[in-house]
Amino acid sequence: MTQLDLFLPFALPPEEMARDLLRALDLPALALLLARGRRTERQASDGFARALPHEPRLARQFGLAGDAASSPPLAPALMRRFGLVPENGTWFILQPAHLHVAHDHLVLTDLRQLALSEAEARALFAAAQPLFEEAGKPLRYGDARTWFMRADDWTALRTSTPDAACGHNIDIWMPAGPHERDWRRLQNEVQMHWHMHAVNEARELDSRRPVNTLWLWGGGTTPAAPVPETAVFVPSADAGLYTDSYTDPYAALGAPRTAVSSAADMLRAPPPHAVLLLDELAGFALAGAWSEWLTVFHHYETTWFAPLRDALQGGLLDRLVLTLGNDRALAVHTVTRSSLRRFWRSPSLAALAS
What are the DSSP calls for 73-135, one per residue? Predict the structure, then answer.
C-alpha cells in the first residue's frame, strides 16, 4: 500500500483535560508515529461552525465538497449506498433524535445513544411520512437511523452535522436561511404526532429516551457525480475506505463490504491508497465518558497503531497520514518509512495536546 489516510475523530482531548488523559494513555506505537512524523497542518477555532473540523475533510475524500457555511452534502451519495436512487433535486439526511431540556434550552443528545430498532424506526417513519408528503417533501427510508427528505426549494438552507450540535443549546445549530420557518413548522408537527406514539410510550416504560425530534442536515443536489468507486474498497480498486463502525454516516459511504476489524485484515489485500475511519472515540468523548475513551484508545494501539507502525517499518506501507480532531481543532501528521528512522526523536504523545 502506498498511502493510508487515517481519520481519528476526537483523538485530541479537550485542553482542560489533556494533561490527565495523556498521563493515563500508554500508546508506544502512536507515540513513535507522532514524534517521528511531521505535522503538516493544524487548525484551531473558538468560533461557531456547522461541522466538526474533520468532517469536511473526510467528505472531500469522496469528492463531496460543499458550502463551508453548511454541513457537507452527503445525502445523495449516502442514498446510493443504501440502494436508493435520488431523483434529480435537493435531498437532505433526516435522522430520528432526542432533545432533552437543560434549564432554559434544548440540547441534542448524541444519536449513537438512541439505539432505535428497525421496528421502532419503521413505525415512526410511517407516522411522519404523510406529514412530509402533504408538505410536498417526500421521504425515503435508508435504515433505522438514516432517512432522506427531498426539498428542491430548500437548497440554500444551512444545516449542522449532529456531532457538531451534540451537547449544545440547539438554537444556533438549527437550520437557518430561506425556509427555516417551514422546516421548524414541519418538525413541530412531527414532534406532536410522535409525542404520544406507541413507540415512545414503550420506550419510556423501558426507561429509554423517547424519539422526540428529527435532525436535518447533509443537503446535496442531484444530478451530481456519484461517489467514485475508487473510494470504496474492492480487492482490485485503486483506493478504498475501511471502517470499524457503521454508526457514522461517513462510514456508511464505504458500504459494509469494506468492514475490517484490525490492520491485519486491511493489509491482506490493500489498494495503493486507502482511507481508514476509526470513530469509536467520538461517542465517549461527546458523552464525557473518559474511562471508556481511554479503553478504546488502548484497543486501537494493539489493533491498529502497532501493526501500522510495523507495516511502515517493513515496507508494506509507504506513507501514513493521521488526521486527529475534536470539536474545535484538527491536526494532520504525515509519517513515512524514512521518517521513522529519526531515532533522535523520542516517542511522545505531546502532539495530542499541542
Answer: --HHHHHHHTT----SEEEEEEEEE-EEEETTEEEEPPGGG----HHHHHHHHHHHHHHHHHT
CA atoms within 13 A on the CB side of 8: 22
Q: How far is CA 231 from the centre of its chain?
A: 16
End-to-end CA distance of the chain: 30
- DSSP classification of residue 230: G
Instruction: Write down the pLDDT at residue 244.
Output: 56
The dihedral built from the CA positions of residue 242, 248, 253 and 255, taken in this order, carries a sign that is positive
CA–CA dist 135, 129 (Å, integer): 10
User: Minimum mean pLDDT among 42-46, 93-97, 120-124: which range?
Assistant: 42-46
Q: Rounded to 5 degrees, what are φ and ψ at 217?
A: -170, 180
Q: Are strands 89-97 and 38-44 parallel, antiparallel or unpaired?
A: unpaired
Which secondary structure element, helix H or strand E, spans residue 226, and what is its range?
none
Rounded Cα distance between 77 and 40, Å, is 29
d(CA 202, CA 123): 12
Task: Kindly tell me if the per-residue pLDDT of 175 is higher than 50.
Answer: yes
pLDDT in tens, 189-210: 999 999 999 999 999 999 999 9
What's the pTM value of the predicted model, to 2 decimals? 0.88
Report the distance separating Cα 246 and Cα 258, nearest Å.
11
pLDDT digits (tens, 9 = 90+) for 41-78: 898 887 789 999 999 988 888 778 778 889 999 999 89
CA pair distance 293, 310, nearest whole angstrom: 24
Looking at per-residue confidence, does 263 or 229 come out higher?
A: 263
